[in-house]
Amino acid sequence: GDVAVLVPAAGAGVRLGPGRPKALRLLAGESLLVHAVRRIAAAPCVHSIVVAAPTAELNAVAELLAPVAPVIVVAGGATRQESVAAALAAVPAGPGIVLVHDAARALTPPELVESVAAAVRAGQDAVIPVLPVVDTIKEVSADDAVLGTVDRSALRAVQTPQGFRRDVLAAAHAAAVDPLTDDAGLVEKQGIPVRCVPGSEYAMKITRPFDLALAEHLLAAAPA
Ligand code: C5P
């Protein structure tokens, strides 16, 4: 493989309700992180996996993942961006392509890892998986007055894994000032073009209790 996958997994998961850090919450008896890493490791392009774990859970995460796949575990940071930067710094020499993939997208099919990596290998600097937006989207004021309706046909919901040429991602993180919620955003700020590829509904982000319940139902059908 020529791909390193960074897995930010250091978030608290406040929106999921009280409990352990989100990546360690259970889905059908296994942590979200185990589900996610198993699917990443099933993609033939993957050379190495670096997980950014909550500082208090470094040993627990290493033990959890040892039977699943060879992984490098590092301490995450206060923001997702810091966690990604910590993981990026631990990537071994070799892979020229780096993917960043949220542990919270636990059911992401290995095929999506392959297709994002393939688009970078084919010459793109930065690649994101996207889905069309199904809801009508309104822009609103702070007091809930509707300001306008956004043209839905020009919008996409963005998933992970996001794929980059390794030097492009490293330069974007080195130049980063304000924390952003995704890595492609940092690359955009560098003026580098970002391309979309089709995402997967299975790559949904498990954020709220409803998502966890939905993921339980999807698990049996999810490609692995
Ligand atoms: O909070 P959100 O759902 O956007 O988090 C996306 C991913 O980033 C999750 O996998 C979470 O564990 C990770 N994260 C992190 N370090 C943080 C915050 C979030 O690795 N400080």
SSE layout and pairings?
Layout: E1 3-8, E2 26-27, E3 30-31, H1 32-41, E4 46-53, H2 58-65, E5 72-75, H3 80-88, E6 97-100, H4 110-121, E7 126-132, E8 138-140, E9 146-149, E10 156-158, E11 162-165, H5 166-175, H6 183-189, E12 195-198, H7 209-218
Helix pairs in contact: 5-6
Bound molecules: cytidine-5'-monophosphate.
Keywords: Isoprene biosynthesis, Nucleotidyltransferase, Transferase
Pathway: Isoprenoid biosynthesis; isopentenyl diphosphate biosynthesis via DXP pathway; isopentenyl diphosphate from 1-deoxy-D-xylulose 5-phosphate: step 2/6
Pfam families: IspD
Task: Provide an overview of this structure.
Its EC number is 2.7.7.60. Pathway: Isoprenoid biosynthesis; isopentenyl diphosphate biosynthesis via DXP pathway; isopentenyl diphosphate from 1-deoxy-D-xylulose 5-phosphate: step 2/6. By secondary structure, this protein is α/β, with parallel strands linked by helices. It has a single domain (3-221), classed as Spore Coat Polysaccharide Biosynthesis Protein SpsA, Chain A, CATH 3.90.550. It contains seven helices and twelve strands. Strands 1, 4, 5, 6, 7, 10, 11 and 12 form an eight-stranded mixed beta sheet that branches. Helix 5 (166-175) packs across helix 6 (183-189). It binds cytidine-5'-monophosphate. The site of cytidine-5'-monophosphate (C5P) has 19 residues, from helix 3. The site of cytidine-5'-monophosphate has 19 residues, from helix 3.
